[in-house]
Amino acid sequence: MPSARSLLDRVHEVVERARTVTDHPVLTHVARVGLVAYGAMHLLIAWLAVRLAWGLRGADADQTGALQTVATGPGGRVLLWLVGLGMLSLALWQAGEVLLWWRGLLGRTHRTRTAVVCAKCLAKAVVYAVLGLTALLFAVGLEYEADERLADLTDDALEIPGGAAVVVVAAAGVVAVGVYTLVRGLTGGFMRDIDLPAAPDRWEPLIETIGRIGYVAKGIAFGLVGVLLWRAAASSDVSTATGLDGAMTAIAGVQAGPWLLTAVAVGFAAFGGYALARARYPDRDPSS
User: Fold this and answer.
1) DSSP string, 161-203
2) Rounded CA separation 38/45 (Å)
3) Is the N end or the C end of the chain the one with fewer CB atoms within 10 Å?
4) Tens of pLDDT along 134-147?
5) Closest CA to 198 of 272, 270, 278
6) What count of other Cβ atoms lies within 10 Å of the Cβ of residue 221?
7) pTM of the prediction?
8) Percentage of the chain with pLDDT > 70?
């Protein structure tokens, strides 16, 4: 019977082999396609938000609305396949960073720090994977509305005992993501996702500026999504649980809403530009 040490060595060997796969240049290049798609998606959301702000309603101003826009354009199905496969590769590429840090979970000294880092990596990977799978669903003609799906899930949750508490916890989680995104924008922590030695010095201030604007805008939008979800739990009115498009609509509905939503749209466009810069100079550093 193998000892615990030999078993651990075997696990380490398997992990090292798996990390070699996620570090393969081919996967890295395909992951860059995913980052380009991620940036382009935010540019499309910005455009849809501007249309919403000034009464030119089209597709929803969220991720599924952006994918619908791609689907109806020239070569839409082909582009959706590229987006989907690129985003899934990006998810695998990002998740692979956990394989570098897993040994820290075995020791007591840095276990908590390592767990946080791994959680960040996996959270990013999940977001990319969901977007990739959604794009592939659109590619095969199985469309759905994210805001309607969120409302349905909220309605189902409120029907079960303790469901309101579950929705409140989910809302708190979304608000926490919004706050984290906002803080990351204010502190500039996102720059650790850029391979700074590879990026020309003259571009660094621009990348940092558009990144700050983009992260702050996304943080505000996500925070508002969480608030609307909390209102749905408090009032049992699931119509307020409408995701990112609902948040955009809520912004447009207040006084000076068109100008405020335009400002948010500019922020999403800035984030799209930052994501394109990250595609050019990618770094997976999960310690950010």
Assistant:
1) TTHHHHHHHHHHHHHHHHHHHHHHHHHTGGGGGB-TTTS-GGG
2) 11
3) N
4) 899 888 887 666 66
5) 278
6) 23
7) 0.84
8) 80
